[in-house]
Design goal:
This protein has 286 residues and is an alpha+beta fold. The protein contains eight helices and 13 strands. Helix 3 runs parallel beside helix 8 and helix 5 crosses helix 6.
Amino acid sequence: MKAAGHILLTKNPWSSMNICVICDPILIGRQEEENGCGIQSFIIFNYFRERFLSIWDFIHKAFRLYCGMSILFRFLILIIFAGSFSACAQEKGPLKKVKDNMNFSGKYETATFGAGCFWCVEAVFQRLEGVHKVISGYSGGQVANPTYEQVCSGRTGHAEVCQVVYDPQKISFSDLLEVFFSTHDPTTLNRQGADVGTQYRSAIFYHDSVQQELALRYKEELGKSGVFKDPIVTEVSPFTVFFKAEEYHQDYFDNNQMQPYCSFVIRPKLDKFTKNFKEKLKTDLK
């Protein structure tokens, strides 16, 4: 059926008004058939109407799905959404920084590793027998005394790292390398899981020629072993300077075990680590 300025279909089943296929789903009254179609205004209205209906339909379906879930599952979803969406969500805390070269005298030596979020790295190495202390911080960048927010921007060049102070009589640097390569993915460039950016790169900052030789050899032999199907991209660079991270980053997992990231990311990694390296754990953790 045609009318002036319109191409009309049969009657709208929900009213006595006709439907214009050009302006669909706008309803055209009988008296409007003699006027111009006004296509532009109808198209604009129709565009926003369709978007609104799509959003409303999504919300309605999501609500019905949520209502159909068990109480436990609803609770888990609320916990996840309440936590950080990024593996290392930014938090406020003291901004005082300490330049720390970690030059321990006596029986202790120092290793510096970057393997993604330093909360995970710290929690792993703290549990090794022979490790005296683990400190989270930043290394490998160009900006002096950076803040956590600056490092997270990816513009300082720093990597999130942990300095591991250990007793070489109880645990060797080679043992630390084994743990390092076994507890993160060294084949993903500037990324660990959902954490993306140069600050999350896989890196070893060696403190002397012995560490350099051992790191390069271990990386090469591991690459040839076929354990990883993709090439290992771990950076092996000389250590220059270490900036200790804000205080609230220290002992993060131990102090925040109920935080969603700790529960859903760090805890499973620790469980797998303790199972695979049981003989290297501190006595009270075995």
